[in-house]
C-alpha cells in the first residue's frame, strides 16, 4: 500500500499521468489519505469540451465520480458515515464498461449506474 506514495504540500499541486485509455471499458483504482475536506483527485478532458472524467472528494465524506461522454453529465456518488478526511488510507475503484459504470469506496457496496442499452458512447480523452 505504501509503494509510490506522493505527498502534496500545496493545495494547487498537480501530478500528470498518461491519458486514461478507457474508450470502451476501463477502470481506475487508487488509495489516498488526507485531512483536506475537498479536492479533485483525477480530472481528464476529452476531444471535445464536453468529454471528461473526474473523481473528487466533497465535504470530507463523499467521493464523486463525474463523467460526460457527450450525452450529458453522469454522477455516481458515495457518502461515507465516518468521513474520508481522517488521515487514514482509503481506496477508490471506478469501472465503466458497455453495460455499467460503478464506484466503490473502501470495502463498501458499489454505487452502480446502468448504461443505456440503445448504444454505448465511447470515452475519447486526450
From TrEMBL:
<dbReference type="GO" id="GO:0016020">
    <property type="term" value="C:membrane"/>
</dbReference>
<dbReference type="InterPro" id="IPR001791">
    <property type="entry name" value="Laminin_G"/>
</dbReference>
<feature type="domain" description="Laminin G">
    <location>
        <begin position="1"/>
        <end position="126"/>
    </location>
</feature>
<dbReference type="Pfam" id="PF02210">
    <property type="entry name" value="Laminin_G_2"/>
</dbReference>
<dbReference type="InterPro" id="IPR050372">
    <property type="entry name" value="Neurexin-related_CASP"/>
</dbReference>
<dbReference type="InterPro" id="IPR013320">
    <property type="entry name" value="ConA-like_dom_sf"/>
</dbReference>
<protein>
    <recommendedName>
        <fullName>Laminin G domain-containing protein</fullName>
    </recommendedName>
</protein>
